[in-house]
Design a protein that fits this description.
Layout (H helix, E strand, L loop, with lengths): L9 E6 L7 H14 L4 E6 L1 H4 L6 H17 L8 E4 L5 H12 L2 H4 L3 H10 L5 H16 L4 E4 L4 H19 L10 E4 L33 H10 L16 H14 L3 H7 L5 H27 L2 H29 L8
Parallel strand pairs: 1-2, 2-3, 4-5
The protein binds tryptophan.
The site of tryptophan has 12 residues, from strand 1, helix 7 and strand 4.
Amino acid sequence: MKVEMQTKKRILSGVQPTGDLHIGNWLGAINNWVTLQEQYETFLCVVDLHAITTAYDPKELSKNTLSTAALYVACGIDPKECSIFVQSQISAHSELCWILNCMTPINWMERMIQFKEKSIQQGNNVSIGLFDYPILMAADILLYDADFVPVGEDQKQHLELARDIAQQRINAKFSKNKNILKIPQPIIMKNGSKIMSLIDGSKKMSKSDPNEGSSINLLDTPEIITKKIKRAKSDSYIGIEFNNPERAESRNLLMIYSILSGKEISQCENEFSETGWGTFKKLITEQVIESLSPIQEKYKVLINDPHQLNNILIEGKERADDLAKKTLKRVKSKLGFFEMGK
Ligand code: TRP
């Protein structure tokens, strides 16, 4: 008797290897992948080609790439179940990106909010790569026929763009009946998808923030964590609330506490309704240190075992390369490229 295997739907996501990952990356992205990995066939990319769209240090790139991959695993991604790979190892990303570049109208790109925001920060030094960032991201996603892409709210527009390029500029134009590219759906992570800066609750926690006190990095020592939370912005209210629009910092820290402790927001609100900032900061400091400690321990073991890490990335690359090659071949053939005779 033939046993029908139910195939899992596929997800693809990634984080840039720019410097230390912080709890925003963890709670907003990696931690969600951890919950999704059982249910989905999971591809997780370290997007190092994206990391060079703004100024970077070549001495750090490879180290950061490895450390980001190690952190995926340390945070609970199972490398036996998931394919973890490095974007620049698979040349199909750049190649599909070029093809999609040629199919995408420039005015679609001029609407990209993240580009506008980042280019303001960069002043005169904005590269074509930064402008092209969303198309490279589209290539990342479309190469793997991803059914779903878990992303934070701020990446929704990029995912829309990937869908539009695939549907309107590739499928509709180059294929009459069968889709060439699969149209991906977003999974917008609600909890933790936006962890804010510790020193300004209206700004997202970001690796590019020059103020180190704005984020808690996954590899921060207990002393540093204590110092950062002590200096985090507070306000003059008593009690920690979630829904008061004037209290962005209180909301943010309560959200972090709730996710890390596994307690519902409402339960935390009750617990801290009369707690002062000093006491709350002590409690959240303990919680953050306790939650990061197993990640840091696992990270230490992995980063000191380059052989194991390398094997994880080789296996991930092989699985990813297989799929990526097939998609690229399909696209090139439908778009009319010359094919070598056998
Ligand atoms: N732009 C994403 C971010 O900043 C990172 C990213 C690159 C990504 N390629 C991707 C996310 C593909 C999901 C899928 O968060």
